[in-house]
TrEMBL record:
Coiled coil spans: none
Protein name: Glutathione S-transferase
One Pfam family matching this protein: DUF952
């Protein structure tokens, strides 16, 4: 089966120096790493990162059988939606690419 292609938004400074696993503050405070689908990432960027100039998009491929990936309802820009959450530090090798977010210029899917 193909892995899930998901996305994580992070200011560049938060990604620099990541070792074998990426553990953002949300892992400690909420118990998971926030991820978005291609259809969700533009809305997430607009809602939570509107004033961040150095925003990166991590392109994440999570194996379909990874038990730490859970789809959970959360309040998003379009109301309640099922968002992917990774309940452990994200293995660095799951991040297959990074790109800069430029206010939707690099569209990854339908904007909300």
């Amino acid at each position: 089966m193909s892995p899930h292609r998901l996305f994580h938004l992070v200011p560049e400074a938060g990604w620099r120096g990541t070792g074998e696993a990426y553990a953002p503050d949300s892992l400690r405070t909420e118990g998971f790493v926030h991820l978005s689908t291609a259809a969700q990432v533009a809305g997430t960027a607009g809602r939570f990162f509107a004033d961040v100039d150095d925003l990166l998009v991590l392109h994440v491929e999570v194996p379909t059988d990874d038990p730490h990936l859970r789809w959970e309802p959360a309040e998003g820009p379009r109301g309640t939606d099922d968002f992917p959450h990774y309940h452990r530090a994200l293995p660095r090798h799951y991040v297959v690419a990074t790109s800069r977010w430029r206010s939707g210029a690099d569209r990854l899917g339908r904007e909300s």
